[in-house]
Amino acid sequence: MNKKMVLKIIPWIIPIGTILIWQLIASNEWISTRLVPAPFTVLTSFYQLVMSGELFYHMEMSLTRALIGLLIGGGIGFILGIANGLSKFSYLFTDTSLQMIRNIPNLALMPLVIIWFGIDEGAKIFLVAIGVMFPIYINTLHGIKNIDAGFIEMGKMYGLKGWALFKEILLPGALPSIFVGLRYALGIMWITLIVAETIATSRGVGYLAMTAQQFMQSDIILITIILYAVFGKVADLIAQWGERKALRWHKSYIK
Amino acid sequence: MGVPSLAERSTHQKKAVQILLQQIDKSFGDKTVLKNLNLEIESGEFVVIVGKSGSGKSTLLRLVAGLEEPTSGQITFNDQSIKDSKLSATMMYQDSRLLPWKTVINNVGLGLKGDWKEKAEKTLDLVGLYSFKDQWPSTLSGGQQQRVALARALVHKPSLLLLDEPLSALDALTRMDMQNLIEKLWLNQGFTALLVTHDVREAVKLADRIILIEDGDITLNIKNTVKRPRDFSDVMLAQMEKKILEKIMES
């Protein structure tokens, strides 16, 4: 066997070994299969969830919540970041308050949010929106403030002002930083959603996990955990792809 | 091909601007940078301002660019205030200030409206970088970046080109290339040029007139009538360079 093949196989020894040992433990019932279901059982349940359409029914709901929350929270964070980066008055007026609110963990608001919004969609979307708003706000603000003042002076010298100055210089200059904020916000989005979906719901991946817990279906709980991992990874890949597209000019992307 | 005299240049180029600075004072807080400074720059003239760092030479350039307001005194372009005159002034800086997120051609076209692409391509050709038009600025060398910045300044057909030590970050050979290029384009296009530098040799090579600024005031104002293109073996140039350097050193 050549060296390349060996190098390709090495990273997979631990994951595959784990699954084999896991299967061994389960099939010999060294630990109760109700606590640790066999890998094969998990696969079968996954197949059943997919075929019955149940999985997509719940995934759709979770994705909708995540996206709406991201759009609202991210949008507000972006607008505030731009406004405070450009206007000293706006910065003075809002930044201190925003920084105070930022230091409250968004999940600590949960009891209050349930009283305010009840247990319906509003509560979950609100929590996601609050969570994603701050990383996007801070990184947008940082991006705008860190644009080389020389670029702005040069732009004005060449007749750019208002919207043109924003579009040609301020926004592209802030974009690398905004993407950092976005990727950070995506992480917070999923964490918030996972917790928020455990409050009384009738639909969503979190609901799937909670009902599975009540019926001791550890296989389904495992599936939901894997699902969240996949969601997170896919979201990050999409963000990375967008970053590569939008920042083609950036040193780190020029080949 | 004969090089046109100053008088010829200013007549064939009606667009160039005549600049008058009268009793200019400029201070930042308690610090006075320019004191009662008077200067007249003829239309189409190439004036070079030399001086040590902190002498106020860059401030003078920024005042003419309209980036700063004088504390007192007035600056006029063809007898009009800077704001009223519709004349276009463009500027080259020490760093190229090319926008890294725009390709070379889009950097040159910055701020142009309408059908600008062809104009930008032609100007890029003038500085010899047409083939680089679709590259990102960060892939160019420092000298190439300054050439693009020069194209960006010239595409507006300025009546005044301001140059704030644009060559000081370049290596000696590239700098000589750029000096020749700037001189050539200035001769062809006939704009008024105002260059700030601390390189006396550069000043002597390019200037119709050399102005030395010390402590916020003009202490030397020398006409340089040596024929272009100039060669450093010329005795007149060497004497002029020596005279200016001696004046700078004695203070």
TrEMBL record, chain A:
Record-linked InterPro entries: MetI-like (IPR000515), MetI-like_sf (IPR035906)
Coiled coil segments of this chain: none
Keyword Membrane annotated: yes
Transmembrane intervals: 6-26, 38-57, 63-83, 103-119, 125-144, 188-208, 220-241
Pfam families: BPD_transp_1
SUPFAM superfamilies listed in its UniProt record: MetI-like (SSF161098)
Subcellular location: Cell membrane
Keywords: Cell membrane, Membrane, Transmembrane, Transmembrane helix, Transport
Residue ranges constituting the ABC transmembrane type-1 domain according to the UniProt record: 59-239
Domain of life: Bacteria
Family from the record: Belongs to the binding-protein-dependent transport system permease family.
Name of the protein: Sulfonate transport system permease protein
From TrEMBL, chain B:
Domain ABC transporter: from-to ranges: 19-240
Top-level EC class: hydrolase
EC number from the UniProt entry: 3.6.3.-
InterPro entries xref list: AAA+_ATPase (IPR003593), ABC_SmlMolc_Importer (IPR050093), ABC_transporter-like_ATP-bd (IPR003439), ABC_transporter-like_CS (IPR017871), P-loop_NTPase (IPR027417)
Single GO MF descriptor: ATP binding
Organism of this sequence: Peribacillus huizhouensis
Alphabetized PANTHER family for the sequence: BICARBONATE TRANSPORT ATP-BINDING PROTEIN CMPC, SPERMIDINE/PUTRESCINE IMPORT ATP-BINDING PROTEIN POTA
Keywords: ATP-binding, Hydrolase, Nucleotide-binding, Transport
Gene3D superfamilies hit by this protein: P-loop containing nucleotide triphosphate hydrolases (3.40.50.300)
Protein known as: Sulfonate transport system ATP-binding protein
Highest classification ranks of the organism: Bacteria, Bacillati, Bacillota, Bacilli, Bacillales
The keyword Nucleotide-binding is annotated on this UniProt entry: yes
SMART domains per record: AAA (SM00382)
PROSITE patterns to which the protein is assigned, alphabetical: ABC_TRANSPORTER_1, ABC_TRANSPORTER_2
Domain of life from the UniProt record: Bacteria
